[in-house]
Amino acid sequence: MLQMAASGGGFMIRNARCAWMRRCSSASALGTVLAALFLVGTSPAVSAAPPALRIHLLGTGGPELTPDRAGYATLVEGGDTLLLFDAGRGILQRLYEQRINPKRITRIFLTHLHSDHIAGLPDLWITPWFLLGRTAPLEIWGPPGTRAMVSGMLAMYGHDVASRVNRFNPAGAIAVTVHELAPGTIFDRDGMRVTAFAVEHDDGNPAFGYRIDRAGHAAVLSGDTTYSANVVAAAQDVDLVVSNVIAFSPRLSALPEMQGVLAKLTTPEQAARLFVETRPKLAIFSHIVKKELGGAPGDAAILSRVRAAGYSGPLAMGHDREVIELGKSVTLLPPPSIVDLPDLDSKSAPF
C-alpha cells in the first residue's frame, strides 16, 4: 500500500492497487496532485479515527456514453446514515459494486431534473423493493417540479407496481414522499446537516447545489452550474469541493450549437477561480462532460487548463467508485475491489 499525506493541506492518497496508480499517472492526475502535496511536505501518518464523512463517487459522467463513467450520482455516508445525491444511469449497479445494498438507500436529493440526473431513479425506487426487500418508503428532496416528475414515474410503472404488490412486497414500502426545495437547511438528522443553495444551469433551472456537514467536516457538491457566487459562499471552510466540469475539442467549441452547452456548466478556468476562492483541502471533478477529449488525454487536458488558470492546490479528476474520506485528513481511495463480489439476487442474499 502506498500512503502519502500533506500535513499542511490535510490531503492524502492511499493506493492499494497498482492499476489505479497507473491510471492516475497516465492521466497526469496523480502527478498533478502529488506535485501540490510535496509543496507542503509529506507524512506517513494515517488517522485511525473513523472519518466524519465518506463520499462515494458512484457515477462521474454526464449524458455522454463512455466505457468507464456511469451517470452522475454521489453517495454521502456519515456513520450509519446514507444520503444519495442524484441518480444517473447505472446507479443500482454502482451501489452493488460498492458493496452497498441498494435497499439501504431511502433518502435522495436531486440537484435538478435533467434526464441524466434522474435516469436511474425508477430502478432505484422499484427494484430494491421487490427484489431485495426494502421495507421503508423513499424520501426525495428536489427542485420545484419534483413532485410532478415523481407522479409521472409512479404512473409509468403503475401496472408493474399494481401487479407486484402482495404480502411479500408491501405497498407502503413503494411509497414516495417528496420535499420541493427552497434554499437553506433542508435536512438535519442523525448528526448530518444538508444545506441547499441555488445555482445557475440555464435550461436546467431551477437547480441546486448542496453542502453536507457532519462532526466539524464538510463537503460541497456544486451540482450542474456555471461559475456561481453561491457555490463560492457555500464552499467556504469545507474539506472537499466536488465540482462539475465541461470541456470540448476546439472544433466542437467553435460550433454555434455548443455555445449554450458550454455556458451552462463550469469550464476548467471557472473551476480554477472557484477553487482559488474557496481553497478546499481537495478539489475533485465529477459530472465530467467531455466531447472529443476522450480518455486519459482528455482528463489531462482539463487538469492542465485548471493549473494554467492559476489554481495550484490539491486537485483530482474523479473516477467512478472512488471514495473520499473526510476526517483529520482528506483521503482519496481507489474503487473497492469487485473480486469475489457475490450475486445480490434475493431478499435473503447475504450482503
Automatic annotation (TrEMBL):
Q: Which UniProt keywords apply?
A: Hydrolase
- Which Pfam families does its entry note? Lactamase_B_2 (PF12706)
For this UniProt entry, the molecular function terms from Gene Ontology, in alphabetical order, are: 3'-tRNA processing endoribonuclease activity
Alphabetized CDD domains for the sequence: arylsulfatase_AtsA-like_MBL-fold
What stretch or stretches form a coiled coil here?
Answer: none
> Domain Metallo-beta-lactamase: where?
70-287
Q: What is this protein called?
A: MBL fold metallo-hydrolase
Q: What does UniProt list as this organism's lineage?
A: Bacteria, Pseudomonadati, Pseudomonadota, Alphaproteobacteria, Sphingomonadales
